[in-house]
């Protein structure tokens, strides 16, 4: 008879305030880069794809 034992270990790490602020600022910069990059893209397919996605998600864009 074979017996299998599965164990799961969860590790919780607490971040300091400065680390959370840095992560938030980096996430904001990435989001703005993606938003502005697709909004002013020279390639019409990239711009139109982002425009249609905003409409599909219900966000007003103009």
Task: Give a description of the structure.
This protein is mainly α. 58% of the residues lie in helices and 0% in strands.
Question: How would you concisely characterize the structure shown here?
Answer:
The protein is an all-alpha fold and 62 residues long. The protein has helices at 17-39, 44-56.
What would the keywords be for this entry?
single chain; 62 residues; mainly alpha
What sort of overall outline do the alpha carbons produce when their principal axes are compared? elongated
Total count of strands? 0
User: What level of helicity do the residues show?
Assistant: 55-70%
SSE series: HH
Taking all Cα atoms into account, the compactness measure Rg is: 21 Å
Quaternary form: single chain
Query: Span between N and C termini?
Result: 67 Å
Secondary-structure map:
Elements: H1 17-39, H2 44-56
């Amino acid at each position: 008879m074979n017996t299998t034992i599965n164990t799961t270990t969860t590790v919780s790490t607490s971040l300091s305030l400065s680390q959370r602020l840095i992560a938030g600022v980096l996430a904001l910069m990435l989001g703005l880069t993606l938003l502005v990059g697709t909004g002013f893209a020279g390639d019409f397919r990239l711009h139109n794809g982002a425009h249609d996605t905003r409409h599909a998600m219900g966000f007003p864009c103009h």
